[in-house]
Design a protein that fits this description.
With 341 residues, the protein is mostly beta strands. The protein has three helices and 21 strands. The strands form four sheets. Strands 3, 4, 5, 6, 7, 10, 15, 18, 19, 20 and 21 form an eleven-stranded mixed sheet that branches. Pfam families: DUF3048 (PF11258), DUF3048_C (PF17479).
Length: 341
Amino acid sequence: MGFARNRTLRTWTAAGIGGALLCGTLAACGGGGKGSSTESLKRGPSGTPTTLGYHPLNGGKTGLNNPVLAVKIENTSPAMPQSGVSAADLVYVEQVEGGETRLMGVFSSRLPKRVGPVRSARISDLHLLPQFGRPAFAFSGVQSKMKKYIRKAPVYDISQDNGGKAYVRDNSRKIPYNLYADPKDLLAQAPKAQPPQDVGFRFGPAPDGGTPTASFSAKWPAADMEFTWSAKEKRWLASFHGRPDMDANGGRVGGQTVVVQRAKTTRSQFHDFLGAYTPLIHTTGTGTATVYRDGKAFDAKWSRPAEDKGTTFTTADGKPLNFAPGQVWIVLVNDGKPYMP
């Protein structure tokens, strides 16, 4: 995998593999991890409120019947500081064109007053979202070839095209880093968005063992993030390119649990207007991960049998690896050599 690690700093490189695959159809872009076959995008289950006894996205006790809202958020220097990230229950970090990254914040238990900068969706989002049933999905647009897949996806499309006055431009910032949305207004456009359901996460006491870890980092071809343990705040504080990653709504972004999930990354059929191909992150199948909580690192295995199923994280002996209650970050890195399509 090509990483260096020790008790105080772990670095995970996520950028690509040789022999990139050009997907000819969306079905060929499915599948993923070790031992999985390709698959087409599937509709999520009908979904019912969770029976876990806690919120399935953050382990809390509030908002169990609130709808799920996923928002694509820019994650480059011109977008900093972002708004609303700290209020998400779950944050995905995904590689996009040019080796940069983008966030997908998943909100349910609480909503910020403003979220953004909102940016465009990617094909990897459509492979992640079915596990949430049918959530509301906010984004600024998609490549023209992707529009038909958005229409078929198990989401309520509340993009800029459909979201009306929920979206506003902040004239103090430059386009395209100035589009923001009010999550409450977004959900008003998707009154049937489903409440949270079991996505495979388990929350509770930490397992025995673990490696004491003060900080760790994830690297992509054109981006890097570092997370540093704060014993005072009992969470991992994020940095971007070596600078504290702040939320414009107040405070530093970061989560109680951060998962570095290694997933095969290949080239999709989609590309931007400059011709740079969009990476496809294969989040079904099986693979390895490192779960960071309580100032320690725990080796883990991940498994997601199908797109309408959640992802489970287990210890080496197959027991559920509990997350710490609170915000969860899933940092998706390539399982292999650095990848650049």
